[in-house]
Design brief:
The chain has strands spanning about 1-10, 15-25, 25-40, 45-50, 60, 65-70, 70-80. It is an all-beta fold. The protein has a single domain (about 1-80), classed as Lipid/polyisoprenoid-binding, YceI-like (Lipocalin), CATH 2.40.128. The strands form two sheets. It has a five-stranded antiparallel β-sheet with strand order 1-2-3-4-7, with no helix packed on it. It is elongated, with a radius of gyration of 15 Å.
Amino acid sequence: MIFILFTQTIKLQENITAKLNVKIAGVEKEYLVPVIFNTNTNNVKGQLKLNIKDFKLKSPKKLLGMVVVNDHVDINFNLFLQY
């Protein structure tokens, strides 16, 4: 299970930097991610790039190692904020 906590923004304008806390397999990391904020719809879009080795995970292998999954994962998010 993956938990992503949107903790704060650095500046409230269209192009902002968000601080995200990501928790995977009991390991938590903090990332600063550039995001686009739409003030009309309270929508936040961005992409988080992470490496699964940062969370002490190994890349899964299939077919006796003939198929290997990349360590790098891109998470695209599109959030609608309510407050």
